[in-house]
Amino acid sequence: MLDFKIEEEKCIECALCAQDCPVRIIKMDPKPIILPNKEKNCLQCQHCLAICPTGALSILGKKPDDSVLVKGEIPKAQTLSRLIKTRRSIRKYKQEEIEPELIQELMDTASYAPTGHNDNAVLLSLIDNKSDLEKFREQVYVSIKKAKETGSLEKQYEHLSVFQKVWESSKTDIIFRDAPHLLIASAPSVDSSPEADCLITLSYFELLANTHGIGTLWNGLVKWAINDIDPNLRVLIGIPESHTIGYVLLFGKPDVKYTRSIQSDGLKINRIQLEK
């Protein structure tokens, strides 16, 4: 059941919900309705809830009063552009943990990221304290060493063995960069776009994190360790076997301060012009 409800005294019969429904299952009669045989086609996108100008419509148990209103302060284009241009990958972190409430706020906001077919099934696996991250880090280095010793370490990952030896000899942490927190995004492999969904979700997380002065590092090394070197690491941290791991993000309070942006050489652009 979609639990599609209309407060009739608030509804002005503007039909915006029906017009904006991506699958056109809302009918005006004269108030909006969804016929029972059409409910299965709902994408659960909540566009109808979002577009209603009077807050007359609720669906899926979601009430308009619990939504964030569009009106209010929105970052100016120049401000957002500066944030994107000055964002740097952080490889030096203060050994301070971020407040759990702030981490939760970042994840809650990241949950608004779009997903393919509106699956909204991204799983964020979080290590929110240094103690557990130290234990996981140690296990990752142990797994890399074992893979090297048993000959199961693929050639493309040989450099991880070098990092493991550096860690063993000097406790210099090249893989995790001594970050206090780690976030792994995964999604069911059967979803329409699991890897893309994860990357978009982490991007939302990262942008908001940067506004709070939190540094981040996209980390493919940890992803390789879990995916390709030791599947037991996946079991250790509770990521379902049926999930595709999108990416790994390290984060924490930066122990380095940059003065200005780099200077990008720009993207390669293919301007498509089709003959008429």
UniProtKB/TrEMBL annotation:
Residues 2-31, 32-62 form the 4Fe-4S ferredoxin-type domain. Keywords: Iron, Iron-sulfur, Metal-binding, Oxidoreductase. Gene3D superfamilies: 3.30.70.20, NADH Oxidase. It comes from the Bacteria. InterPro entries: 4Fe4S_Fe-S-bd, 4Fe4S_Fe_S_CS, Nitroreductase, Nitroreductase-like. The keyword DNA-binding does not apply. Pfam families: Fer4_7, Nitroreductase. Belongs to the nitroreductase family. This is Nitroreductase family protein. It comes from Paralabilibaculum antarcticum.
